[in-house]
Amino acid sequence: MILQSFKLLGFLDVKNVPCARESVLYGSLGSLVLGLGHFLATSRVRRSCDFAVGGFIFTMLGYWFYCRYNFAQHRIRQRMLREGMKNKILFEGSSLDPERKQTGNERSNS
C-alpha cells in the first residue's frame, strides 16, 4: 500500500514541505479562535465567518514565514558547523591548528 501525501489546494504538499503542516494546523486554530471570539462578542454569523477566514490566512502566513525563517537559520548553522568540522579534521595536528600550542621556534619560523 503506497501512502499518498496530502496536497493542500492541489499544489502544497503538506507532508514533504517543511513548515507546511504546522502552518495549516496553527492557521486552523487561529481561525477557530478568531471566528468564535468574534461570534461570541457580536453574534453576527457572516461577519464571524469572514473573521475566521481572515484569521486562518493571517495566522497561517504568519507562522509560515516565522517557521521558514527559523528553518533557514538552522540550515545555515548546520552548514557552518559542517564546514567547521571538516576544517577541524583537515587542520588537526598541522601548524594551522588553532588549538595547537606553538613553541618559540614555530612562532619565529612563521
Automatic annotation (TrEMBL):
GO cellular component, one term: mitochondrial inner membrane
Gene Ontology terms: biological process: mitochondrial respiratory chain complex IV assembly
Keywords: Membrane, Mitochondrion, Mitochondrion inner membrane, Transmembrane, Transmembrane helix
Pfam entry (one): Cox20
Transmembrane domains' residue ranges: 23-41, 48-66
Subcellular location: Mitochondrion inner membrane
Ranges in a coiled coil: none
InterPro entries: Cox20
Homology family: Belongs to the COX20 family.
Full protein name: Cytochrome c oxidase assembly protein COX20, mitochondrial
Native organism taxonomy: Eukaryota, Metazoa, Chordata, Craniata, Vertebrata
